[in-house]
Amino acid sequence: MSTDPLVVFTPSGKRGHFAVGTPILTAARQLGVDLDSVCGGRGICSKCQITPGVGEFAKHGVTVSEDALSEWNAVEERYKSKRGLIAGRRLGCQATVQSDVVIDVPPESQVHKQVVRKRAEARDITLNPSTKLFYVEVEQPDMHEPSGDLERLVRALEAEWGISNIHADLHILHVLQPVLRKGDWKVTVAIHLGDAENAPRIMHIWPGYYDGTVYGLAVDLGSTTIAGHLCDLLSGEVVASSGIMNPQIRFGEDLMSRVSYGMMNAGGAQEMTAAVREGMTSLITQIATEGHVDKQLIVDAVFVCNPVMHHLLLGIDPFELGQAPFALATSGSMRLRADDLGLNIHPSARVYLLPCIAGHVGADAAAVALSEAPDKSEDLVLVVDVGTNAEILLGNRDKVLACSSPTGPAFEGAQITAGQRAAPGAIERVEIDPVTKEPRFRIIGVDAWSDEDGFTEAAAASGITGICGSGIIEAIAEMRLAGLLDASGLIGSAEQTGSARSIKDGRTHAYVLHDGTATGGPLISITNPDIRAIQMAKAALYSGARLLMDKFGVDSVDRVVLAGAFGAHISPKHAMVLGMIPDAPLDKVTSAGNAAGTGARIALLNRDARGEIEQTVHQIHKIETAIEPRFQEHFVNASAIPNSVEPFPILNSIVALPEVSFNLGGEGTGGRRRRRG
């Protein structure tokens, strides 16, 4: 039995006997304890802060005395005087073992610290980025043993940190020698730690000890919008988030329109590639400015996107995705340099693209699977990433099915008469009194409803400008609940509905939500073409989900998760009234926010997650909606509001849907008709 002192680390519980005088950092490394250090034990970085316990620890069978660690030394005193040190804390590289001791490693000192996502219901992200900082002292050149500065730097990194086979790009050689000499042969190096395809690589180098950080970019490249999250790779913090419209939208609002543009126009694919890369340049400049970050410090990036966006970002003609069997050029994950994509970040920055699942089920669906983990769910969960091209996952621990469904841009306010992006002034919430048929609404940027005191004054800054996706969903659902709209999607006349807000609009009718024309503002109304656009979008969404349920052999699901930036703002009740999602208890319908973007963040901040999702996608079975006969059948049924066949018993127990029909060929009165079910 060893007579050396016992060292116990918490919260890991790892323990071992070490000779008197062993630094705590050394003991931690030998036991594989999660204790951070950038400076290699020189007392510069303070990453290795620990808290020693004192007293009797029955659980561990030790009694710890006050002098279990070496005395406070000059290095610790210097650090405390310059930067401060929490009372009771020691530097693990300076404090040495004197007798039995219990050492607590606080969260901020852990290498793989937990980064809590902003949503309370979300799981944590384990921080383990691909690029990390290392402080090292390099041997000076010697006439008797000549060698290059890079070779001696590489040797020092391997000796100090155990990183082998390190490479460097030419731009590092351009600055290496002056940096080494400015730092008196002491430097901090940012190293991309490599992966299955790439060796470790020096990304950046600073003279002396660099007390800063490096950054990564997580990008959700969608058909309509591009969203990015700029993250601190050392803390996991989201420094800035921003988004822009995808400039490709001018070539077509949906994916197939863009594929067609590439087919019908020579050089069309190259045009669209140039457009999306220009968009990325704008987004990166915008997000770096917002975060007050030098773009050259962005050294890692992760992209998730649907297959068409994936191909166009890479400069691959998506021609084959426009026809069966919808073959991808590659479905595997990709590891590239920023220069390969023309990104205006660090020239050697590494770019990781998540794998696509198959066909039109892309890396964005893989990112949703990484974020929401349906393959780890005990109950049957339906995950719907609502966007221009909806990604749908259905599964549990037994199996996961996936499909994509072309919903189009209507959910995002496009193809809607008064539609707009979610911006200040846009109507985002709607309620209609079922008796008076009068509406009230809320706009983005104002907390009060339109019929409440203070609304007019608060809305003056932005004005009432239009209606966004969540607003159009609620407006149509409320119209259905108020008897202004029948199951087929027709708006009744003023005589049929009893509301003067139902106005003539060509051969059909429209419902006026807001008339601002008297003061020079817009007339915001819901028209029958608007409703038709939403019907087509929601029918595609529901049909995809229902098809997966058929393949799974079920008629119901245990819970529904709405993902996507738009999905985060959808009211579950209104979504079900429209028939967007299958019938389910409302408390089992939740939002996951931008799950694809979160999946991109997870892959950015934890390189182990990349291997995890690469394994997961092989276990997901893809269903191709284009060749499934029942998809069209479900689509026709789902065109009704909520559905012409499905009974929706849970929904009907919550709300009463008026049995009205306005398909009378004229201005007749609205008759009551039993809904087929």
Describe this structure in words.
- With 677 residues, the protein is of the alpha/beta class.
- Among the domains are: 104 residues, Roll (Ubiquitin-like (UB roll)); 85 residues, Ubiquitin-like (UB roll), CATH 3.10.20.880; 139 residues, 2-Layer Sandwich (Nucleotidyltransferase, domain 5), CATH 3.30.420; 131 residues, no CATH class.
- 28% of the residues lie in helices and 23% in strands.
- A six-stranded mixed sheet has the order 16-15-14-17-19-18, sandwiched between helices. It has a six-stranded mixed sheet with strand order 30-29-20-21-22-31, with helices on both faces.
- It is elongated, with a radius of gyration of 30 Å.
- The N and C termini lie far apart (78 Å).
Helical fraction equals: 25-40%
Number of strands: 33
Number of H/I helices: 17
- The CATH architecture classification of the domain at 215-353 is 2-Layer Sandwich
Helix vs. strand class = alpha/beta
Strand order across the biggest sheet?
Answer: 16-15-14-17-19-18
Write down the CATH topology of the domain at 215-353: Nucleotidyltransferase, domain 5
Q: Looking at this structure, what is the CATH superfamily of the domain at 215-353?
A: Domain of unknown function (DUF4445)
Mean pLDDT: 87
**What is the CATH class of the domain at 215-353?**
Alpha Beta
Largest sheet: 6 strands, mixed
Query: What proportion strand?
Result: 15-25%
Low-confidence stretches: 114-123, 666-677
Q: Radius of gyration, rounded?
A: 30 Å
Please state the overall shape, judged from the principal axes of the Cα atoms: elongated
Distance between the termini: 78 Å
